[in-house]
Amino acid sequence: xxxxxxxxxxxxxxxxxxxxxxxxxxxxxxxxxxxxxxxxxxxxxxxxxxxxxxxxxxxxxxxxxxxxxxxxxxxxxxxxxxxxxxxxxxxxxxxxxxxxxxxxxxxxxxxxxxxxxxxxxxxxxxxxxxxxxxxxxxxxxxxxxxxxxxxxxxxxxxxxxxxxxxxxxxxxxxxxxxxxxxxxxxxxxxxxxxxxxxxxxxxxxxxxxxxxxxxxxxxxxxxxxxxxxxxxxxxxxxxxxxxxxxxxxxxxxxxxxxxxxxxxxxxxxxxxxxxxxxxxxxxxxxxxxxxxxxxxxxxxxxxxxxxxxxxxxxxxxxxxxxxxxxxxxxxxxxxxxxxxxxxxxxxxxxxxxxxxxxxxxxxxxxxxxxxxxxxxxxxxxxxxxxxxxxxxxxxxxxxxxxxxxxxxxxxxxxxxxxxxxxxxxxxxxxxxxxxxxxxxxxxxxxxxxxxxxxxxxxxxxxxxxxxxxxxxxxxxxxxxxxxxxxxxxxxxxxxxxxxxxxxxxxxxxxxxxxxxxxxxxxxxxxxxxxxxxxxxxxxxxxxxxxxxxxxxxxxxxxxxxxxxxxxxxxxxxxxxxxxxxxxxxxxxxxxxxxxxxxxxxxxxxxxxxxxxxxxxxxxxxxxxxxxxxxxxxxxxxxxxxxxxxxxxxxxxxxxxxxxxxxxxxxxxxxxxxxxxxxxxxxxxxxxxxxxxxxxxxxxxxxxxxxxxxxxxxxxxxxxxxxxxxxxxxxxxxxxxxxxxxxxxxx
Amino acid sequence: xxxxxxxxxxxxxxxxxxxxxxxxxxxxxxxxxxxxxxxxxxxxxxxxxxxxxxxxxxxxxxxxxxxxxxxxx
Lengths: 746, 73
Hints:
The structure holds two protein chains of two kinds. Chain A is of the alpha/beta class. Chain A is built from 32 helices and twelve strands.
């Protein structure tokens, strides 16, 4: 049997510009046999799959790249994999460079760089249908001659040419190494051989020249060699000096040299059947979608639809999940004997799973719409429309979608920031994304607004409560912009202004399979990453609220006992009166249900107050008092630092109203009825506003911290994030409560 | 004249950059002396702009577009 261990398999790397159908091809080749992970030390997704058959092939999907001169973490990884710079990452045996036939000239730029790595390369000439539609006919045979590489015309979206590509990938004989076709300006060229020699010990022969060119123009690339090859490092710096003195435009020499070769090649292989200036369908769509007036209106309308979908359409599914989790808990309680293990299982484990699962409908819907925007090409237009607004706070249009996604959940929002090429823009976007009001805040807003803010309308149309809800979203958004501005101005104020260069790819019909695939893929990432943490915290919370166990005070026990005695006497009375015993018990149980529940609730509340969570609440109460929060709210806030929505179940536990959600009138009434010892209410509208503002601004989400840690690859930024957001929350709540009291609104 | 002096829909030939250090991403996208450029439209809020170069649409900000010298064809 052939050796099919990963080490022995042929390893093929897929590379290509963004929007060329590379991922479609990868999915086609590998099906569901994919492994998604991360490259060590960086936050770039590593996708590896297997093409079955004889022999099987390992396929690695490199991040979409315009160039091998890295401008982003994604492109850096693509280059490093091809050059073998990454530990434990075997150099590919073969590279498949996927190019967009309708946009051949710019795509050949990357091809010319890949050729320079010296790796055997196949060119997958994809989207030939789109090219024909645009009136471009490409002579593939001629292109093959010009490049000296095998060229396979394809329409990957419709499976065209895939068989041929598979065949070429399997052939024993790898395509020959391409020869360099382009010339660099002589003044730069004459310095290269010496530098190339310096890399003799470190880089495979074919890759040396491109490595030298990278280091000549890119500091990040040069730093890689500082320790590894000091002589080379020094020689490059010296060469840069020499070229600067000669005033040679060496920074641009590589790019110009490549295009000087590419443009004539294009002229020879591409023939046009339509005038260059002819309007395409895509151009016509753009005339509407990016129109001065219609563009922003339609964009706003689309956002409205997405919001509507996420908040409204998801509700039935969320209710279903909630009631499902509820009945599962009941079922377990019905089967299992009442014990601590059962409590842990129902209140900890099942409720914990429910806390994660309940967000799934919203997240799936959001990812569906994001996928739709990406796949049709509208995403780039949204950045085009919004860039002006974002540039005011030092960001670019590219941050719009990550920030908007954060309205559903900061986790996908932070993950979506990966698309930003500028690392500073990316970091700022990550840092402010959690200020956008996510769906986990919604239940908290709902509960407190419904319970404590006045009903009634303004202008006969807007309800007070609706305006309050809107204000919460507005406050979070405004603060995100302010924070971005401050970060940009005072923390990340070095370096050039974030410049913006974004392709506006042609519109195309969405491919549902791709969109659904990605939707499931990303949602899985959420469930696994956030799920683990929320689940774990739910169990810890249960423990904190349950232990240490204390006996209820004598008076309550007596009360409970006497209630039981009263019930027993009444039952006997009915039995004496001729009622069946079972029936009598049932009748009395119903009659006394409220009383029993009341005393039970008081006992639980008494115990919770003495549990860890109650003690913690009491411990921080002095700090929280100036914001208007008593020990119960404080304890709720502590528990909500794991995940915001937990405050509702925490308050439910503390007020011992059993299993509730934010719409529960029971919890609302309990909250309204709660008083301090002097009889004044714990919750006034002012306290509620203070609490709401606290929830708008505070970073109460372990999952966000965890994902920020992953994406920034340090604990520093999540720590800064937590501190500044919690600081803001405290400050604003303090101002609101103290200010409100001073104005006599208390 | 620069790219910004063109009217929407007008084509021109690029003559050079009026800066020593043009953003290399824009060079890689093919914004090089000698290439034909069309100013397609301005974004709804006036910035950035949509240009067509080497057969594809690219969005760049006015601040960069103002550095691109062009001549009418």
